[in-house]
């Protein structure tokens, strides 16, 4: 018993240490949202005034177009990814295609390509189409890069849908589209919500493609944050505020999807 308690104590201690190393830098930079640049560099550290929201309000008033850009391309690419990924995953799982495993592997392999390898070709293409410095270019690029991941993850969850449900729907006269819409999607809602959460986070935090494809007016928030680091000065207060704002949408989205992200939604749907 003593050995068991000692091991538990050690594990809890290690967990607290690792958590502290992970969380403290985040708390420090978030506290910068309530400090001036001078206070950020003061030693010993100055306690933030959590009641003073003036710096945050001024930041949002000045940079709200870039916050909107990030929200627009992130939400848009998440919606488009789901609209394309769910039917494609359904088809790859339920239709017998020649080389279907090869197709699935090829789709996933495109996600392994580093964004920097496609950044310049994409810039040339979008520049030729006159779409550089537009939110549409970012929307297309984000959707293209996240779509392979969305298809692969969605396939994993659709495979768990009991075949008996699909066969029963087909016997009752449902079309493949109706089977997908009224049977597969509701049963796979937890997997779709999980996919949407990951795609949202990937798109919201994306930096490299936005740096290449956006202009002065269409920059996203990660690109704006990078501009606060100059050769002669670092605007720590702005970085703290932007980081705090950058963290809020993924947290809200994850909490909104939380009730759907439940394992075993298909359990008991069909009695063996």
Describe the structure.
The protein is an all-alpha fold and 272 residues long. It has two domains: 1-52, no CATH class; 63-257, MetI-like fold. The protein has helices spanning 2-31, 37-40, 54-94, 100-111, 115-128, 135-158, 163-171, 176-187, 189-205, 208-213, 221-226, 236-257. Helix 3 (54-94) packs across helix 12 and helix 4 crosses helix 6. The radius of gyration is 23 Å and the shape is globular. The two termini are 43 Å apart. Residues 264-272 have low confidence and may be disordered.
Query: Which series of helices and strands comes N to C?
Result: HHHHHHHHHHHH
What's the CATH architecture of the largest domain? Orthogonal Bundle
Helix percent reads over 70%
Number of self-contained structural domains: 2
Give the integer mean of the pLDDT values: 84
- Give a quick account of the main beta sheet: strands, pairing sense, barrel closure: none
CATH class designation of the largest domain: Mainly Alpha
Give a topology summary.
Layout lengths: L1 H30 L5 H4 L13 H41 L5 H12 L3 H14 L6 H24 L4 H9 L4 H12 L1 H17 L2 H6 L7 H6 L9 H22 L15
Helix pairs in contact: 1-12, 3-6, 3-9, 3-12, 4-6, 6-9, 7-8, 9-12
At a glance:
The chain has 272 residues and is mainly α. The protein has helices at residues 2-31, 37-40, 54-94, 100-111, 115-128, 135-158, 163-171, 176-187, 189-205, 208-213, 221-226, 236-257. It is globular and about 70 Å long.
